[in-house]
Amino acid sequence: MNLIRTCGLGLGPALLLCSAVLAQQPDATPRHPDGHPNLGSVPGTKGYWEVRPGVGGFRPTGPVPFQPWAKAVYDYRQKTFTKDSPQVDCKASTGPSFFNSPGFEIVDVPEQQSIFILNIAGPHSWRVIHMDGRQHPPAADRRPTFLGDSIGHWEGDTLVIDTVGLNERMWVVGAYPTTSQLHLTEKITRPTAKTMTYEATIDDPGAYTQPWTGRFNITEKAWLAGGEMFEYICEDAQR
């Protein structure tokens, strides 16, 4: 158990030493009382993440293993993105696209065993990550939706989100096509108070020949300490 985690747990004799060390680490990752990272604002403060040019941007970590039809769709979407994107047309999206919308907040509610991820743009939507140990519904009982069914768990300091049950109307990874066979795995870490790392693995045998991964690093410019997410009604902007 490292010192920061010990501080989070508030274990007696180490507490004064922890306080001294943390006082010298103003950018240390904030933590909940049980020791796991707090990916949002700490109690008594405000703040949210705002992804702007230069502070984010999802990129594949290697060649994307397209099926031929998926590559053709991707190339077409690249040319017509602002016209065809459902996100531009105020539809909800999950995965990497959700975090580029353009600001978001992550709210951990332990008493509900849930983590909520809220965003500003699109239809002002939110995702619910169930942290109570449940499994996904059987495939036969799933109703494909824009945001899917998400369950999560912690692997050390990394939040792992597993999502299935997604429809084919949303664009989960920008212009990259996906099908209802998509199994999305996301990993989120907060190395410091003002930075975040996001990784997503796209496992979709309907569109790709094998799973592939992309990531982005959100720089310290993206954390708006003291900021509050503002109202942005996408549908109104379309009129």
Kindly describe this structure.
- There is one protein chain.
- Helix 1 packs across helix 2.
- The N terminus is likely disordered.
- The protein folds into 2 domains: about 30 residues, no CATH class; about 190 residues, no CATH class.
- It is of the alpha+beta class and about 240 residues long.
- The radius of gyration is 19 Å and the shape is globular.
- The chain is built from 5 helices and 11 strands, in the order ααββααβββββββββα.
- An 11-stranded mixed β-sheet has the order 2-10-9-8-7-6-5-4-3-1-11.
- The longest helix has 17 residues.
Please describe the topology of this protein.
Layout: H1 3-9, H2 15-23, E1 47-50, E2 59-60, H3 68-84, H4 95-98, E3 103-109, E4 114-119, E5 126-130, E6 149-155, E7 158-164, E8 183-192, E9 195-203, E10 212-218, E11 223-225, H5 234-237
Parallel strand pairs: 5-6
Antiparallel strand pairs: 1-3, 1-11, 2-10, 3-4, 4-5, 6-7, 7-8, 8-9, 9-10
Helix pairs in contact: 1-2
List keywords for this structure.
239 residues, alpha+beta, 11 strands, 17% helix, 28% strand, globular
Order of strands, widest sheet: 2-10-9-8-7-6-5-4-3-1-11
Extended strand count: 11
| Helicity range | 10-25%
Q: What radius of gyration results from the CA coordinates?
A: 19 Å
Structural class: alpha+beta
Q: Please state the average pLDDT score.
A: 84
Beta content comes to 25-35%
The number of domains is 2
List low-pLDDT spans.
Answer: 1-6, 13-24
The major pleated sheet works out as:
11 strands, mixed
Anisotropy-based shape:
globular
Determine the number of helices (DSSP H or I, runs of at least 4 residues). 5
Q: What's the order of the H and E elements?
A: HHEEHHEEEEEEEEEH
* Distance, first to last CA: 55 Å
